[in-house]
Amino acid sequence: MQSDDEPIIDPVIRKLKRLGQLATKDLAELSAITLHVENVPRLRQLIREGDTPERCCFLLRGFAARHKVASSGARQVVSLHIPGDILDIQHLLLGRADHSVEAITPARVAWVSKGELQRLAWKRPNIGKALWRDCLIDASIFREWVLNVGRRDAKSRIAHMLCEFVIRCEAMGLGSREHLELPMTQTQIGDATGLTSVHVNRTLKLLDEDGALVRDRNHFTVMDWDRLRKIADFDPGYLHEAA
Amino acid sequence: MQSDDEPIIDPVIRKLKRLGQLATKDLAELSAITLHVENVPRLRQLIREGDTPERCCFLLRGFAARHKVASSGARQVVSLHIPGDILDIQHLLLGRADHSVEAITPARVAWVSKGELQRLAWKRPNIGKALWRDCLIDASIFREWVLNVGRRDAKSRIAHMLCEFVIRCEAMGLGSREHLELPMTQTQIGDATGLTSVHVNRTLKLLDEDGALVRDRNHFTVMDWDRLRKIADFDPGYLHEAA
DNA sequence: CGACAACTTGACGGGCGTCAACCGGAGTGG
DNA sequence: CCACTCCGGTTGACGCCCGTCAAGTTGTCG
């Protein structure tokens, strides 16, 4: 659909390159995939729990979150997403969406037919492997989140979420470890860590007082990465960044 | 390696059949796979965090759990496994184990070379799809667990874990909804729900008093499935049982 | 019958939730 | 240019759910 030097889905391609070896032919096929590109406002629901999507969603710009809600109405964010991420690759092989996805900033996404992506995955095994690997890393991150909300206190939980976010952004070339722009409200941070916004607020103040970071609204500056990492009990192994 | 009417890895094959369409040829190749079968005692570590396994582990008999540990020493069980489950399919495409797996009862497992399984996945796309689908369902369960430990209270968490366990056992033909044999200590239930064993004990008593279930050591009888399901806020959709 | 793991129960405390009030910045409309 | 609104952040008071500590009981396997 486009054949520029920099294809529209470039962030996704760069991510897939990190996930596995891609040959020239693989890259050509990926660049030739049919896309429906869309700009969406903040808080737009991209996938709704219960839907049976016929396409997958690539995040090209901005940030997104996946969440579930309990019958009490409580929300739980189960993952955060940055440009290059595939937001719902599980729909390649699962019918019904078991959770929702929404943009947490204004964002640019590309929709791809799940049939076409599936065909590509089996026609070009390198692509299939990269996609599968991506699913597996997603799952690894979910496991770490179970540990995070299950067994860490508020300070560690929030610090851990920040560490993960920074490292993943860095890996995609989206900013530095020292200067972090977190596109989330304190309520959303709470939803991601199993806390209330009130307690998030108090805990951020504590992290500030500890000298681990400095806040100015949504702008965080990590003052002492190593201290933050220790507070967070953060070990990046579960991100499986090294191939 | 074996060609009986009932191959040794029958539980796994039955599960894969539920995950996707398998042709006669697929079944033949699956049954011909090279296995290393092993009986292991309770609490045997099958995979250790940090390992770089060269094989995958099928659970044929007994029960297993996957867990991570925080630097504080706190354990978090991230999933429970029943016969037919593949315990570490993520190692097909990921090198380093990001968590540990252990038998929680005496168990029988079969080890398969990850290279051989990978070749099979690409040679027989039906098998590949079934395996990939299995990974995706695993991930869906992790997401539900994040919600469970993040946003539900102790009673719901434990009830939810019980509901999931029952439904999955039922789907594998391993027992009924009314009579549940839970192969876990209260400490392990706590590790799976982000609680302490003391609080698990108190909460089980509450569930008992509510009339949702009756306990006799590890034997649970669900007295009122619908009440338990309501307490648990349990909706089996995330298990993606229907193909 | 001794050793040990697991379960049980009570007393106490703290981390986090709840409720509520107030503040501050960004729109928006008159 | 100034209300007015709304969302999000901030702070305090208070209470509860669940953790901690500790002692005692039960069941199991030598």
Element layout with pairings:
Two copies of one chain form a homodimer.
Chain A: H1 10-19, H2 24-31, E1 36-40, E2 45-47, E3 55-61, E4 64-69, E5 75-81, E6 100-103, E7 107-113, H3 114-123, H4 125-151, H5 154-171, E8 179-181, H6 186-193, H7 197-209, E9 213-216, E10 219-222, H8 225-232
Antiparallel strand pairs in A: 1-7, 2-6, 3-7, 4-5, 4-6, 8-10, 9-10
Helix pairs in contact in A: 1-4, 3-4, 5-6, 5-7, 5-8, 6-7
The first copy, chain A, binds a DNA duplex (30 and 30 nucleotides) through helix 7.
State the main characteristics.
3-stranded antiparallel sheet; Arc Repressor Mutant, subunit A; 8 helices; alpha+beta; DNA-binding; 21% strand; homodimer; 243 residues; 10 strands; 4-stranded antiparallel sheet; Jelly Rolls
What does the model show?
Two copies of one chain form a homodimer. In chain A, 42% of the residues lie in helices and 21% in strands. The first copy, chain A, is built from eight helices and ten strands. Chain A has a four-stranded antiparallel sheet. The model of chain A has no long low-confidence stretch (mean pLDDT 94). The first copy, chain A, folds into two domains: 10-138, Sandwich (Jelly Rolls), CATH 2.60.120.10; 152-239, Winged helix-like DNA-binding domain superfamily/Winged helix DNA-binding domain (Arc Repressor Mutant, subunit A, Orthogonal Bundle), CATH 1.10.10.10. Chain A has helices spanning 10-19, 24-31, 114-123, 125-151, 154-171, 186-193, 197-209, 225-232, and strands spanning 36-40, 45-47, 55-61, 64-69, 75-81, 100-103, 107-113, 179-181, 213-216, 219-222. Chain A has 243 residues and is of the alpha+beta class. In chain A, a hairpin with a 2-residue loop joins strand 9 (213-216) and strand 10 (219-222). Chains A and B meet through strand 5 and helix 4 of A and strand 5 and helix 4 of B. The first copy, chain A, binds a DNA duplex (30 and 30 nucleotides) through residues 153-154, 185-187, 195-199, 201-203, 205, 217.
